[in-house]
Design a protein that fits this description.
The chain is mainly β. The chain has no helices and eleven strands.
Length: 116
C-alpha cells in the first residue's frame, strides 16, 4: 500500500509559477514510476508528466518547456514545477505512483487556478 499526499496548489496569475509536491509513504520501495495528471471541469483526466525509477521523464506537449517533474528520493517526494502558467492550465492536479508495475495509487488532488 502506498499513500500519497499532495500540496502546493493555489491561485496564480497568468505567467506565474507554482510548485506542487507529492509525498509518498508506505511500501515506497516498490514504486516503479511517478507522475502528475490533471482534470479540468468537464474534461477527462490527462497526463501532465511522468518520471520513471531511472529518472526518464515524459511530458504532455501542452506543458513541454514550461513544467518540470523531479523527485527527491531521500524525502520520498516528487515535484511538479510549473512556470509560465496559462489559464488553460487550471485544473485539479493529481499525483500518482505505479506500484510493482501494476497497481496505481492516486493522491487526493490539489486545485490549481490560473487567472488571466
Amino acid at each position: 500500500q502506498v499513500q500519497l499526499v499532495e500540496s502546493g496548489g493555489g491561485l496564480v496569475q497568468a505567467g506565474g509559477s507554482l510548485r506542487l509536491s507529492c509525498a509518498a509513504s508506505g511500501s515506497i520501495f516498490s514504486i516503479n514510476a511517478m507522475g502528475w495528471y490533471r482534470q479540468a471541469p468537464g474534461n477527462e483526466r490527462e497526463l501532465v508528466a511522468t518520471i520513471s525509477r531511472g529518472g526518464i521523464t515524459n511530458y504532455a506537449d501542452s506543458v513541454k518547456g514550461r513544467f518540470t517533474i523531479s523527485r527527491d528520493n531521500a524525502k520520498n517526494t516528487w515535484y511538479l514545477q510549473m512556470d509560465s502558467l496559462k489559464p488553460e492550465d487550471t485544473a485539479v492536479y493529481y499525483c500518482n505512483a505505479v506500484w510493482r508495475g501494476v497497481t496505481v495509487y492516486w493522491g487526493q488532488g490539489t486545485q490549481v487556478t490560473v487567472s488571466s
